[in-house]
């Protein structure tokens, strides 16, 4: 595994473990975070603020990696992301493109189908509303 791929794996793993400060330390000062259909967030302090806020609000995150490919400083991930909040849980496919420079993530660009995300979220909401479900 390349150093760049390991940085990306570490970033996502730290976020899943609720260690947002350690994950934020892997972001470049001028990081750019893109998500399909959402505004681009620029800068470690702004991206870090969003990640810390998710953790503070109790939003759980998991990235189930299917494939990781690296070519120099570019890392591609094929994964299923899981978001949790209380009884709600949604799982959706994500393709991520990362650029790593000097051991820090400079670009984090996640692509996903908004229709897939909506369908998964509706399923998660329905399951959360079922009686007797934790």
From TrEMBL:
<dbReference type="Pfam" id="PF07858">
    <property type="entry name" value="LEH"/>
</dbReference>
<dbReference type="InterPro" id="IPR032710">
    <property type="entry name" value="NTF2-like_dom_sf"/>
</dbReference>
<feature type="domain" description="Limonene-1,2-epoxide hydrolase">
    <location>
        <begin position="3"/>
        <end position="119"/>
    </location>
</feature>
<keyword id="KW-0378">Hydrolase</keyword>
<dbReference type="InterPro" id="IPR013100">
    <property type="entry name" value="LEH"/>
</dbReference>
<dbReference type="GO" id="GO:0016787">
    <property type="term" value="F:hydrolase activity"/>
</dbReference>
<protein>
    <submittedName>
        <fullName>Limonene-1,2-epoxide hydrolase</fullName>
    </submittedName>
</protein>
